[in-house]
Design a protein that fits this description.
The chain has 501 residues and is mainly α. The protein has three domains: 105 residues, Recoverin, domain 1 (Orthogonal Bundle), CATH 1.10.238.10; 133 residues, Phox-like domain (PX Domain, 2-Layer Sandwich); 148 residues, Helix Hairpins, CATH 1.10.287. The protein has a three-stranded antiparallel beta sheet. Strand 2 and strand 3 form a beta hairpin. Helix 13 packs antiparallel against helix 15 and helix 13 packs parallel to helix 19. The longest helix has 56 residues. The radius of gyration is 32 Å and the shape is extended. It is a peripheral membrane protein. It comes from Frankliniella occidentalis (Western flower thrips). InterPro entries: AH/BAR_dom_sf, EF-hand-dom_pair, EH_dom, PX_dom, PX_dom_sf, SNX8/Mvp1, SNX8/Mvp1_PX, Snx8_BAR_dom.
Length: 501
């Protein structure tokens, strides 16, 4: 009997949802093989994939056929029946990471009340960067531009702070029951202009990272437009196209069965989770203060060592008061001064090491904690919005429905118009659902349930922070200890021979 390669099991675990592999997933898997269309169609027919999803056994047979096709063999069912080797061949399928994301998406569709994602899964949804464009724009009133890139869309665009504000406002209206982190304020009193610009750039990167990795928000056309539109004046263009787009409940396929998605104990569990996350937020906030203090103390330590070196250099260069009249023939001070220059150089190295340690603590520790704090504060804001009830949201949605019946939304780009029209059609199809305040209330609780799970997925960040804290401190203290050990022999040479007495 032939052995099943472990690769086969890994592929099945990667592609299966509810103990079967869907046609869409199977099709994507076949394309990964790089085989010509004729071979792919032949495998498709042999597996009778048109009949529906594939079982584990059928997928294993398909993988074997792919491997044989890659070896140049003619495909038939007899290959499987007559195979007498010890183990089925392993096909070459390349990178399968995108299939993992698709599987997670399908699992959420099958089990809408279970997020089923860890922090690493969220990070794989997209990787974004926000870099400062060196030159400032504008003839009189200079403004800062940022270069924004998205790995998922493969784009690189320029954005201003107000463009982020427009996106934030639209997302908050579109997803009132989802985690929308706060944007940095337009102005912050944190020191110099350069420091303010860098602090805001980091905050905008964190904000965009969290939004682009949200499993629901990252599928929305509004976010796609922000990452892909390369025209002028995006802050007004994006509002013009999407300002009348209804909120998530209005267009969600889950809205009609929202009551089924809410467990009976949801309100109790939500209250308990809110208190639990509040305590976590307080503790993480305190840890953030401690890590900020570590970075500040390392910087102050570096400054102190630099000042100590400067004072030793000053003492080494000072010649007053060293006459025989003053010393009475005592040469101790002169001997000590010989080593001060050497020691001051070593202290300069010590200062630079301490400054580098401060940068590491700021970049590797504080930045991760800021990201976690952003999501925790976003949850606190979400709970506050939910406390106000859904009546106001319901009234807004109803007003948009009436407005939609009176006029058709206007778009600028064809692609965006089509996405907006699709939302309109969905909105009209479920007009009776929209009219139900009870369903909206249930849907909001379902979203709160999912966002609570999303917060817990982000809590994995804290383990990373603790691990980084240990490694950064080990490295920093080891570097400082090495410099001090290098200083010690010089100090010994500066001491008089009978110093021990």
């Amino acid at each position: 009997m032939c052995t099943i390669p472990s690769f086969y099991r890994d592929v099945y675990d990667l592609c299966s949802v509810a103990d079967s592999v869907s046609k869409e997933m199977f099709t994507r898997l076949l394309v990964k093989s790089g085989l010509p269309q004729q071979k792919l169609s032949q495998i498709w027919e042999l597996m009778e994939a048109k009949q529906g999803s594939l079982s584990r056994t059928s997928l294993y047979k398909a993988l074997a056929l792919v491997a044989w096709a890659q070896q140049g063999k003619e495909l038939s069912v007899k290959l499987l029946d007559n195979f007498s080797g010890d183990e089925y061949p392993v096909p070459s399928l390349g990178d399968l990471s995108d299939l993992r994301q698709l599987q997670k998406q399908r699992q959420r569709q099958c089990h809408p009340g279970h997020l089923g994602m860890r922090y690493g899964d969220l990070c794989r949804l997209d990787t974004v960067t926000v870099h400062l464009v060196p030159e400032k724009k504008g003839l009189f009133l200079k403004h800062v531009e940022y270069q924004v890139t998205s790995k998922r869309f493969g784009t690189k665009v320029r954005r201003r702070y107000n463009d982020f504000v427009s996106l934030y406002d639209l997302l908050l209206g579109r997803f009132p029951y989802r985690l929308i982190p706060r944007l940095p304020p337009k102005k912050m009193n944190i020191g110099s202009d350069t420091q303010f610009i860098e602090e805001r750039r980091q905050w905008l990167w964190r904000w965009l990272s969290l939004v682009s990795r949200h499993p629901v928000i990252n599928q929305d056309p509004i976010l796609q437009f922000f990452f892909t539109y390369d025209g002028d004046d995006i802050q007004h263009k994006i509002r013009e196209i999407f300002r009348r787009v209804p909120d998530e409940f209005t267009t969600s396929e889950l809205a009609s069965r929202a009551k089924e998605l809410v467990p009976p104990d949801t309100l109790t569990e939500l209250a308990n989770s809110r208190e639990h996350i509040r305590l976590i937020t307080n503790s993480v906030s305190r840890v953030k203060q401690i890590t900020d203090g570590l970075a500040q103390r390392s910087q102050a330590y570096g400054s102190d060592m630099a000042e100590l070196g400067s004072q030793l250099t000053l003492l080494a260069s000072e010649n007053n008061g060293t006459s025989s009249w003053a010393t009475g023939g005592n040469q101790i001070w002169s001997e000590m001064k010989k080593g001060f220059h050497t020691i001051s150089k070593e202290l300069g190295i010590l200062s630079s090491k301490a400054m580098a340690q401060s940068v590491r603590e700021e970049a590797e520790l504080c930045a991760q904690l800021n990201l976690l704090m952003d999501i925790l504060f976003a949850y606190r804001d979400l709970c506050a919005r939910h406390e106000k009830g859904v009546m106001q949201d319901h009234q807004k949605a109803h007003a948009k429905m009436l407005s939609l019946k009176k006029r058709q939304m206007q778009g600028v780009l064809r692609g965006e118009v089509e996405s907006v029209v699709a939302l309109e059609d969905r909105m009209l199809q479920q007009e009776s659902v929209i009219a139900s305040v009870e369903l909206r209330s249930a849907y909001s609780l379902h979203c709160m349930h999912m966002e609570t799970q999303l917060v817990h997925a982000h809590l994995e960040l804290f383990a990373t922070v603790i691990s980084v804290l240990v490694s950064v401190q080990i490295r920093g203290h080891a570097e400082l200890a090495e410099v001090w050990r290098a200083i010690q022999p010089t100090i010994s040479k500066c001491l008089p021979e009978d110093a021990e007495q």
